[in-house]
Amino acid sequence: MLAQSDRPAHIQTLISSVDRYNPSNVHLLEDYLQSQLSNDQYDLLANLALLKLYQFNPAICSPSASLSVLFLALAHAPFSPDFSLAWSLLSDSFVVGGSLPSAAPSSDDDEDDEDAPAPARAPAEPHGEKETAERLLALSKLMQARKFRDFWRLYREGDSDSAQGQKEHEVREAIDSLARSAPAFDGRVRESIAREVERSFRSIAKPTLEAFLGTTDASQLEQLAKQRGWTVRERDVQLPQNDSNTPKAVVTHERIEIEQLARLLGRSQA
């Protein structure tokens, strides 16, 4: 996550003042979100401020931006509470299937007299936004449970058991669109999984590690192994020792003075 010193000055000023509740500033946070996606950056506080702004002003909510916030949290902090924090700020459109924000008024509406009542506008047509959010939630749960094989399978292949073919198609399109907007997603997730593997193993079968990392060719594993100091052998991969994957025997000594024992026995006989 970006440190405060690395955050653009205008964004820092915005999210640290009451201006973060001003709906007219939503485009600044949305532009910053797009910058994070394309530049492989992550700023949780700014993204939560955007979701909070949507929560207070449902009419300006951008479904695509909301999904992008979830996608970034899944990529950069899959084992932290970031995704849950973002999920808790989603509008009803994603959580319980409420109506999406109304479509923007046409140019003819802008020319109407100010005193004329605003015409009723039908809610925007949903295109699998709720189901896509639920898919991202399912992916987050798989990562939290360290079910890495299932994560990559669901991320790449979707839900083959889904009875709603059209909705599944919309979800797949949405996930693919998010992946194109954040090309570093796969690499970020692999780095997080690699750290978890290093905490648990000193040696792991090569096919198992490839399945955990979701690598599609040998060069990806070789590159990651070079970066992290792994030794790739014919059948397995040796991982460096660390405090987590090196068990150590611990002997705990407890000294009880005779006076303490006497008082304890005296109380038990009382």
From TrEMBL:
Query: What is annotated about its quaternary structure and interactions?
Result: Component of the eukaryotic translation initiation factor 3 (eIF-3) complex.
Q: Where in the cell is it found?
A: Cytoplasm
Gene3D superfamilies, alphabetized: ARM repeat, domain 1, Winged helix-like DNA-binding domain superfamily/Winged helix DNA-binding domain
Which Gene Ontology cellular-component terms appear in the entry?
eukaryotic 43S preinitiation complex; eukaryotic 48S preinitiation complex; eukaryotic translation initiation factor 3 complex
Q: Does the keyword tRNA processing apply?
A: no
Which residue ranges does the record annotate as region Disordered? 101-132
Keyword Coiled coil part of the UniProt annotation: no
Which GO terms fall under biological process for this protein?
formation of cytoplasmic translation initiation complex; regulation of translational initiation
Q: Where is the CSN8/PSMD8/EIF3K domain?
A: 97-245
**SUPFAM superfamilies named among the record's database cross-references:** ARM repeat (SSF48371), Winged helix' DNA-binding domain (SSF46785)
What is this protein called in UniProt? Eukaryotic translation initiation factor 3 subunit K
Q: Which residues form a coiled coil?
A: none
- PANTHER family linked: EUKARYOTIC TRANSLATION INITIATION FACTOR 3 SUBUNIT 11, EUKARYOTIC TRANSLATION INITIATION FACTOR 3 SUBUNIT K
Described function: Component of the eukaryotic translation initiation factor 3 (eIF-3) complex, which is involved in protein synthesis of a specialized repertoire of mRNAs and, together with other initiation factors, stimulates binding of mRNA and methionyl-tRNAi to the 40S ribosome. The eIF-3 complex specifically targets and initiates translation of a subset of mRNAs involved in cell proliferation.
Q: Name one GO molecular function term.
A: ribosome binding
What family does this belong to?
A: Belongs to the eIF-3 subunit K family.
What HAMAP family does UniProt report for this protein, alphabetically? eIF3k
Q: To which species is this protein native? A: Rhodotorula toruloides (Yeast)
Q: Which UniProt keywords apply?
A: Cytoplasm, Initiation factor, Protein biosynthesis
Q: Where is the composition biased (Acidic residues)?
A: 107-116
